[in-house]
Amino acid sequence: MADNPASASDPWRLVVELPSERGSNRLVTDPLLAQLGGCGWPEADVFAIHLAVEEAITNAIVHGNMLDPDKKVRVSCEVSPDRVLVSIVDEGSGFDPASVPDCTADDRLEAPGGRGVMLMRSFMTRIAYNAKGNAVELEKRRA
């Protein structure tokens, strides 16, 4: 399906269940990047989407599912020439996104944590979490 670029009336879709192991994000990012290229998305947007999706999936695997091999991460993607929508759901207990410390604060510049969430917020048009905090929806609209 990655060979046929999406259209505004017929977006490309991918739904996949990932194992909770590092590197499994490529099962999503490789076909997603192919679709973005096929739809003519600008390089800067492709970079931003790739980074945000990779961070969100990594967070779900590492922080949500705690690398538990019995847990999965469900990802759904929709790509059209003017919009990308990615939903990521883990089987973890969730978190409060508002409690993630500001990684740009002077006292946090060298502290680990929070950078992925900050990058997702910076690079995507919209980012939304469910009430439990174990699902995130990333949206990018083409300028």
Strand order of the largest sheet: 1-2-3-5-4
Largest sheet: 5 strands, antiparallel
How much of the residues is beta strand, in percent?
15-25%
CATH architectural name: 2-Layer Sandwich
Helix content: 25-40%
Fourth-tier CATH superfamily name: Histidine kinase-like ATPase, C-terminal domain
What is the radius of gyration computed over CA atoms, rounded to a whole number of angstroms?
15 Å
Counting DSSP H or I runs of 4 or more residues, the number of helices is: 3
Which structural class do the helices and strands define?
alpha+beta
Number of discrete domains: 1
Order of helices and strands: EHHEEHEE
pLDDT below 50 for ≥5 consecutive residues: which ranges? none
Structure write-up:
With 143 residues, the chain is of the alpha+beta class. The chain has one domain: Histidine kinase-like ATPase, C-terminal domain (Heat Shock Protein 90). Helices cover 31% and strands 24% of the residues. Strands 1-2-3-5-4 form a five-stranded antiparallel beta sheet, covered by helices on one side. Strand 2 and strand 3 form a beta hairpin. The two termini are 25 Å apart.
